[in-house]
Amino acid sequence: MNDSKKILAEIVLDHGSFHFKKNGDHVLCSITKEIIPIEELKYWNVDNQEVYASPKIALQRYNCLLYTSDAADDSLRV
Questions:
Q1: Helix, coil or strand: residue 75
Q2: Are 38 and 21 in contact (CB under 8 A)?
């Protein structure tokens, strides 16, 4: 961990922006727990309030959520 990244932020995600619940200089990727400096945060899911370290991780998570949602929907069909 880079020593200059010491304070974990708490944020609320919105469409196209976020705001701080607790000031800090980084967040952790919701999937990998990788440190994401606030100034590099670009990928998140508002509905699940998750942040992602890369577009690849965001897409993998999207596909996982889509597949899980589709499977749940299929189980409700008669």
A1: helix
A2: no
d(CA 78, CA 64): 24
d(CA 14, CA 17): 5
Q: Do 33 and 47 form a contact (C-beta atoms < 8 A)?
A: no
What mean pLDDT, rounded, does the chain reach?
88
Beta strands (DSSP E) in the chain are: 10-14, 17-22, 26-28, 35-37, 43-45, 50-52
State the pLDDT confidence band at 68, using cuts at 50, 70 and 90. Answer: confident
Residue 69 has pLDDT above 60, yes or no: yes
